[in-house]
Design a protein that fits this description.
It contains 27 helices and no strands. The protein has 491 residues and is an all-alpha fold. It folds into 3 domains: 188 residues, MFS general substrate transporter like domains (Growth Hormone, Chain: A), CATH 1.20.1250; 57 residues; 223 residues, Growth Hormone, Chain: A (Up-down Bundle), CATH 1.20.1250.20.
């Protein structure tokens, strides 16, 4: 009996298959595309939603604003949740909850229900990118992170590019409800693939939740984002409805910083900023994204307001810009692991600044489109060579236990400053437009043609702010490492 039982006792289970990091990255791209898509797909449907629900545009705007606020508010607690529940488990939960929110939004029966279900989408969608970055950082290791992060960046490209086109088609040809229903099969595929391919979670951390920090930072970020968004929509930062949430949000964030510097287990580890690479990359992202994201609303408006193009044509004119960004992201991702992020990010900032300058100099009522599109190619290439390589620089040297905190902090910075950049650019443009933004909307084609030079001058003056912000990003970018550890060893 002993002899017969021995082979069974010594037989070991087959080792679990190891999924390649690139496969993991592609699954993460599929999941992230949904959340980035839902930030843009609804914008083209706001007019139709206002008609169907018999609501004002200011009320219907909460369909987009509620999603953005929830997206920003949930990010601060994501790092703790990853440690407590595991990145894989939390990712599956976030995708499943996003699908539930999408179904509910598709069946919304009035405006309050639609806004509520969009907030559910935002809370779950806000966790997807930082969790995905954490999973990728742990799976890739520092020597392969650049290429894999550039792959993950495809989601940032596809969402803004495909969102308006897909949303317009579904609204015009099918139903606005299908803007949300399309998420369901994608969510199901992501859950199945992630459950089979993602590495298993280790033992959960027992670190206590910084409840006070969460109560300070999440409402603070939500109030700050709401304030700057409202200021951008109204074209005025001086009203009480804008100043109150902005100042209140800033005060809460400042109180959180004071709390995090003294707490034993802070919600966000501000000690990460003591690392030169992380601090320099975060500073680069903050300045660059403020100017870069701020122009995302200026570019299509210029073609519509100053040049009289349709919304469809304005969207199509932005396709080369998006393709240049995506192409540069993939190319630089293959070099950042070899030559270091410093050289690439500095080159990206300089390329973007050059593109912004050339675009601004050509902004007129009759500037040649070939020249404008050429400048837009440089802007896109510069953005693709800056954003993801800077994120790689911020996270590549982090220890495994710091991956969640680092990815959460980077996501929080980019989300917040992008909202601030778009709001500031909206206010600056509204102040420079003759008669304000409301007067411009009522212009006939003949009046628009007659006032074309004035309108173009307003956009030109606003773009100068983008040039300044992008150029300022060069200072922290110069502090990034010029060579990788592999390159140093080879030399």
């Amino acid at each position: 009996m002993t002899t017969a039982a021995a082979p069974r006792a010594q037989a070991a289970p087959p080792p679990a298959p190891v999924t390649s990091p690139m496969t993991i990255a592609l699954v993460l791209v599929l999941g992230s595309i949904m959340t980035t898509l839902d930030t843009t797909i609804v914008n083209v449907a706001l007019h139709r939603l206002a008609q169907d629900f018999d609501a004002s545009l200011s009320s219907i705007q909460w369909v987009a604003t509620g999603y953005s606020l929830a997206l920003g508010a949930v990010i601060p607690g994501t790092a703790w949740a990853i440690g407590r529940f595991g990145a894989r488990r939390l990712y599956l939960l976030a995708i499943a909850l996003f699908a539930v929110g999408s179904v509910l939004a598709g069946f919304a029966w009035n405006l309050p229900s639609l806004i509520a279900f969009r907030i559910v989408q935002g809370f779950s969608g806000g966790m997807v990118m930082p969790i995905g970055m954490t999973i990728l950082i742990r799976a890739a290791g520092p020597d392969r992170l650049g290429r894999l992060m550039s792959t993950l960046g495809l989601a940032i490209l596809v969402g803004p590019l495909a969102g308006p086109v897909l949303g317009g088609y579904l609204v015009d040809e099918v139903s606005w409800r299908w803007m949300f229903f399309v998420n369901v099969p994608v969510s199901a595929a992501v859950v199945v693939l992630a459950a089979r391919l993602f590495p298993r979670d280790g033992e959960p951390e027992r670190r206590p939740l910084d409840v006070l920090g969460l109560l300070l930072l999440s409402p603070g970020l939500a109030a700050l984002i709401y304030g700057v968004t409202a200021g951008g929509e109204r074209g005025d930062f001086g009203s009480a409805g804008v100043l109150a949430p902005m100042l209140g949000g800033a005060a809460l964030v400042a109180a959180f910083v004071a709390r995090a510097l003294t707490a034993r287990h802070p919600l966000i580890d501000l000690g990460l900023f003591r690392d030169r690479a992380f601090a320099a990359a975060a500073g680069t992202l903050a300045l660059f994204a403020t100017g870069y994201a701020g122009t995302m609303i200026l570019q299509p408006l210029y073609f519509q307001v100053a040049r009289g193009e349709s919304a469809t044509m304005a969207g199509l004119l932005g396709v080369p810009f998006a393709l240049a960004s995506g192409t540069a992201m993939q190319v630089t991702g293959r070099f950042v692991d070899r030559i270091g992020p410093g050289r690439i990010v500095v080159g990206g900032v300089l390329t973007a600044a050059t593109g912004f300058t050339l675009f601004t100099l050509q902004l007129s009522a009759d500037g040649p489109y070939w020249g404008l599109l050429g400048a837009m190619l440089l802007i896109g290439a510069g953005g693709g060579s800056t954003m993801m390589p800077a994120m790689t620089a911020a996270t590549r040297r982090l220890a495994a236990g710091q991956a969640a905190a680092g990815s959460t902090t980077v996501s929080m910075v980019t989300t917040t400053v992008s909202a601030i950049g778009m709001a500031v650019m909206s206010v600056v443009l509204a102040a420079r437009l003759p008669g304000g933004s409301h007067a411009v909307r009522d212009l006939t084609p003949a009046e628009r043609a007659a006032r074309g030079p004035e309108l173009a001058d307003a956009f030109q003056g606003t773009y100068v702010w983008a040039i300044v912000l992008v150029a300022l990003a060069l200072a922290p970018a110069l502090l990034l490492a010029r060579r990788t550890a592999r390159a140093k060893e080879a030399s």
